[in-house]
């Protein structure tokens, strides 16, 4: 059993390193920044006043980590030193109260290769070519509960460790967008996205049931691995058992997909605008995946040792050692993966709903914004509320500061936009952790991101 968890955990770490292929994501903080070219990725109805073209490869670089776990979840000060959550001086309730039923670590990396926008055909048009990479590890609470508390003193102790998952998706996205005014109050926009898959991998324990009592332990498990050429599996030619794996370097065309973004804004009264968008409506299909599965019929049963202290028999074999070896073999048999038929898999994109409201004062020099973000599709539902104050003291200088609360924790952020005539540079973050260790690791929740970009503006200024 520990071997199984170790096997999946090692693959999780490997997938995290694979995620170094860049991707594209925009800061929520930019939603209310009028001159930010990247905000159209949050709502395709949001426009910018000028034409623009990106600095190749640096129009929008993004790095983000999103987790409801932090250093303080696993390390505790005891007697002037730090100990792990497994230390006997750390109370189980203190540790488990910091966990949710689903514990998440997600990594997003992104880069725009080409990006430009121009006013024509009755509105603003955008073209964006980007690399995207998203990697996530999803861990049920009962894994940590098992490690901390183990078997209860009386009765039957049961654990359900199903759906332990590590996954990574890497693809190229070409997005074409158009936004236009229907009248002086209502604006609408849409984007179509063509996706070309580079690499995908998933390691998952579909089911792991553990039952522990004074009389016996029982473990049932089933799981699978699947990967494009990203993951190279070595198999036993006779049994099909996976004997080794390594990360490959063959990033060919591994799949394709199609997505849509839809958005609208409406000024209900002077200076008060409501907006809403649905982004990433669509699918991604991965072709010719190599797949391996465990044997779902294998079951581990342990009823204790009844040969402790036994003498060796006439052949020099010890009954206690024989049973211990057999138990080890039974556990290994449960965690062996066997290669199955190659197959294709279709996944939904991470569809996200955003609803915003902005109220402007002092002739638009300052505005107050509220933004709700809900991601419906994925291994974990994500919901966030953000409040922002947007300062526009000069036409060439815009600043936004914000605070957010979500089911992954709370945070603060800020973004600076230098938008003088001819160029547009921005740098900012949605989530800036307030408590760090000496090694600059977030203590409460590992939530942080950073985005920056350089674009050049030109042409007539349009009313937005």
UniProtKB/TrEMBL annotation:
Origin superkingdom: Bacteria
Pfam families from the entry? DUF5723
Coiled coil start-end:
none
Name the Gene3D superfamilies for this protein. Outer membrane protein transport protein (OMPP1/FadL/TodX)
Question: Which keywords describe this protein according to UniProt?
Answer: Signal
What is the protein name given in its UniProt record?
DUF5723 domain-containing protein
Signal peptide extent: 1-25
Please give the organism.
Barnesiella viscericola DSM 18177
> The organism's lineage?
Bacteria, Pseudomonadati, Bacteroidota, Bacteroidia, Bacteroidales
Q: Which residues form the DUF5723 domain?
A: 44-430
């Amino acid at each position: 059993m520990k071997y199984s968890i170790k096997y999946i955990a090692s693959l999780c770490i490997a997938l995290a390193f694979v995620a170094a292929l860049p991707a594209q994501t925009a800061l929520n903080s930019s939603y209310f920044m009028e001159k930010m070219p990247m905000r159209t990725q949050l709502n395709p109805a949001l426009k910018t006043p000028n034409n623009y073209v990106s600095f190749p490869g640096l129009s929008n670089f993004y790095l983000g980590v999103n987790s409801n776990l932090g250093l303080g979840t696993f390390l505790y000060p005891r007697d002037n030193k730090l100990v792990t959550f497994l230390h006997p001086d750390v109370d189980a309730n203190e540790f488990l109260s910091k966990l949710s039923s689903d514990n998440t670590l997600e990594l997003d990396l992104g880069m725009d290769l080409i990006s430009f926008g121009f006013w024509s055909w009755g509105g603003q048009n955008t073209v964006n070519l980007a690399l995207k990479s998203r990697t996530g590890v999803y861990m049920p609470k009962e894994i940590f509960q098992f490690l901390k508390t183990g078997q209860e003193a009386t009765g039957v102790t049961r654990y359900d460790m199903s759906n332990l998952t590590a996954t990574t998706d890497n693809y190229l996205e070409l997005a074409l967008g158009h936004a236009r005014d229907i009248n002086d109050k209502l604006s609408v926009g849409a984007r179509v996205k063509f996706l070309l898959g580079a690499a995908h991998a998933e390691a998952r324990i579909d089911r792991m049931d553990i039952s522990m009592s004074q009389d016996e332990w029982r473990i049932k498990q089933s799981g699978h691995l699947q990967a494009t050429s990203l993951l190279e599996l070595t198999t036993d030619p006779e049994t099909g058992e996976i004997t080794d794996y390594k990360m490959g370097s063959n990033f060919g065309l591994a799949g394709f997909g199609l997505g849509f973004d839809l958005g609208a804004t409406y000024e209900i009264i002077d200076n008060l605008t409501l907006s809403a968008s649905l982004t990433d409506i669509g699918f991604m299909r991965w072709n010719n995946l190599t797949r391996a599965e465990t044997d779902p019929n294998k079951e581990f049963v342990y009823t204790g040792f009844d040969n402790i202290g036994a003498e060796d028999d006439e052949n020099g074999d010890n009954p206690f050692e024989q049973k211990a070896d057999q138990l080890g073999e039974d556990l290994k048999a449960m965690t062996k993966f066997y290669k199955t038929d190659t197959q294709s898999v279709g996944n939904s994109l991470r569809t996200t709903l955003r609803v915003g409201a902005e109220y402007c004062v002092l002739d638009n020099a300052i505005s107050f914004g509220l933004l709700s973000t809900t991601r419906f599709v994925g291994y974990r539902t994500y919901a966030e509320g953000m409040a922002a104050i947007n300062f526009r003291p000069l036409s060439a200088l815009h600043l936004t500061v914000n605070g957010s609360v979500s089911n992954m924790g709370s945070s603060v952020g800020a973004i600076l936009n230098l938008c003088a005539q001819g160029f547009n540079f921005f740098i900012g973050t949605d989530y800036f952790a307030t408590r760090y260790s000496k090694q600059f690791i977030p203590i409460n929740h590992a939530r942080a991101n950073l985005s920056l970009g350089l674009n050049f503006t030109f042409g007539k200024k349009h009313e937005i």
